[in-house]
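Please go through the protein record below and see whether the fold suits the sequence. Record follows.
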Amino acid sequence: MATIINLLVGGPTANYPADLTAIPGDWVGADRGALRLVKRGIQPVMVVGDFDSIDEAELQTVKQALAGTIIVKPDQDHTDTQLAVKSIFEQLNPTAVHIYGATGGRLDHLLANLWLVLDPVFRQWAPQIKLIDKQNSVQFFLPGEYEIQKEADKKYLAFVPMMPMHLTLSDEKYQLKAAHNDYPISWASNEFSGDTGHFSFDAGVLAVIQSKDDQVSD
């Protein structure tokens, strides 16, 4: 049976999906993400971080609501998100980890979150990791042939080779045949031709993004 662990990290709340409490599955909080879970009435099964972004009183609030383990980051060699992802896979053994709060705000944090799967330590888990915000979902793939399902609320589809590869898009609106890249590139603004799409590639790590426009007034 599939086991999904949701991880909330410290990105801007404006990028969250509408209601975190409606998302099924257990939750883990990384640093300030742990406090934000507790304030929404969500009891985390694990919290991770050096907790330098919350004060002592807030940390005590988190500890009182905690249903499981607290892991204090021992050094600055890893980000809170990296330590949380590693701890989740090693201790909770989920089928998938869905990460929220990983986009928006500081660009250095965004890049660290996107590039996490390139680290050999984390690459083994790349196909199980998904980044989600109110406009986007990002999945990661290792070399092979794949079929993906269109998300009902998303219009756009992007393929982002993060390392050198030959990429084939066989039945999307805009197709490729063994297109080679030497550096990261975003094949953006593609679309599904139906409810599924097929693609294949031979090396590296590929990010696939489903997205929609932000509904904001001018």
